Amino acid sequence: MAKPVSIIGAGLAGSEAALQLAKRDIDVVLYEMRPDNPTAVHKTGDCAELVCSNSLKSKKPDSAAGMLKHELETLGSVVYKTALKHAVPAGGALAVNRVSFAREVTELIESESRINLVRREVDSIDEIVEESSAVILATGPLTSDALASSLASLIGDEYLAFYDAAAPIVMGESLDMSTIFRQSRYEDSGADGVAGDYLNAPMDKEEYERFIDELLAADRVISRDFETRDLFQACQPIEEIARAGRDAPRFGPWA
Questions:
Q1: Tens of pLDDT along 19-67?
Q2: Which domains, and CATH codes, for the chain?
Q3: CA distance linking residue 83 with residue 85, whole number of Å
Q4: Mean of all residue pLDDT scores within the chain
């Protein structure tokens, strides 16, 4: 009997790899340390749980993200098909209900006879190499310290760069809807032809300058042990963007 393919990490990539291999009649052992070994930000033990933004970026075919989605659809991506089923309004972007999306991906994996979902932490690749025909590393920004240390000993820690981002949650009842207006980022209107899917707060120059002053002077959240000063340039907190220049928030993280 052929040895299975071992996959470390049941995030988006690991879940997709497992499901694709199973479709091709290849046995898989999918290792996921949650929920017995939780991370600092995950809330559940579900596969493909999104812990940052629930947006999977643009669907527009003339964008890089949109082209990738077209390719995923053409190639039969199971995770992408599931994301479409759980999409929520987000203008030209694909955003999902993160709870129901992760739940269905988990159910697909658990119902697949060729996938053995093993709930334990893998401390080292050496643990599973001998029992595997191949090993796929699909571990991300919240890789355990033990596995990260093991990888560093193999390839050198200067080659490891795990990026993640935290998206703030704003309570709807805290917003003054008499001032805020609905409009999508680049579209004239939403799917219903009436309004966009995003909430926007208009500012004149004086309000903007005051906002930047308050933003730069505000108390900052103290970084936790697993966070560093190395920020993914395309997904920075707005206060970090503002520190690059007072006008930078008007243009985004690439300004």
A1: 999 999 999 999 999 999 988 888 899 999 998 788 898 888 888 999 9
A2: 5-54+97-159 (3.50.50.60), 203-255 (no CATH)
A3: 5
A4: 86
Which residue bears the tokens 């964008």? Answer: 63
The strand pairing partners of 135, in sequence order, are 6
CA dihedral defined by 144, 146, 150, 152, rounded to 10 degrees? Answer: 60
156-194 tens-digit pLDDT: 877 676 655 566 678 888 999 898 888 876 655 545 555
d(CA 115, CA 78): 14
**HSE-up of residue 38 (Cα within 13 Å, Cβ side):** 8
Ramachandran class of 143: left when φ > 0, alpha when ψ lies in -120 to 50, beta otherwise:
beta
Structure tokens at 253: 């993280």
**At residue 144, what is the residue type?**
S
d(CA 80, CA 76) in angstroms, rounded, equals 8
**Using CA atoms, how far apart are residues 234 and 6, in angstroms rounded to an integer?**
32
Omega of the bond leading into 202 within 30 degrees of 0 (cis): no
Please list the alpha-helical segments (H only) found in the chain: 12-23, 64-74, 78-85, 98-110, 126-129, 145-155, 205-217, 238-243
CA 60 to chain centre: 19
Residue 107's closest CA among 168, 19, 32, 35? 19
Instruction: Give the separation between CA 88 and CA 191, rounded to whole angstroms.
Output: 11
